[in-house]
Amino acid sequence: MLVLNKFIFLFLGLLFLYIFSQILIQKTVQNKEIVEINNQEVARVLRVIDGDTIEVLINNKEDTVRLIGIDSPETLDSRKPVQCFGKEASNKAKEMLSGKTIRLEPDTTQSNRDKYGRLLRYVFLNNLNFNKFMISEGFVHEYTYQNNPYKHMEEFKNAERIAREEKKGLWKENVCKTP
Fold first, then answer.
1. Is 154 a known active-site residue?
2. Are 166 and 75 in contact (CB under 8 A)?
3. Active-site residue among 105, 118, 121, 160?
4. Can you tell me the distance from the alpha carbon of 84 to that of 99, in angstroms, rounded to the nearest whole number?
5. What span, in angstroms and rounded, lies between the C-alpha atoms of 50 and 92?
6. Is 121 tagged catalytic?
7. Tens-digit pLDDT profile for residues 118-156
């Protein structure tokens, strides 16, 4: 009888370990699926270059990110003069992103990197789609690279239309007029 009790106890212990290990495996698979579904990366902003380009620390490596779907007026291109509202766009990006932890989201409709080797991503600050925010507030233009539609294109185009109608940022009257 004692041997039977030990056998039952051992059997139940092994059954418990098996069930527990299956639960852990399932949780791991679910977490992996969540990462794959969301397809987002966590990064820390090291430097804001301008309104549409940032440097980040991601996976312990520094990288440059070009924000998908937006184009900031130029401030640093030596071939061009500083464009209207470029400094404001750059300053807003610095104010909101400098030193912050952000989420980066690639877009399967776009390349992983642009011709300059920069990562192409949407930037999320908490739950705020920063790319769309910059358009909505009139700091940047919606930008469709080489007429290649992207995931949030219609949403971004609509945000620019509303910013223009509401005369926000660079769309304010007399803001970008040349003398």
1. no
2. no
3. 118
4. 26
5. 9
6. no
7. 999 999 999 999 999 999 999 999 999 888 899 999 999
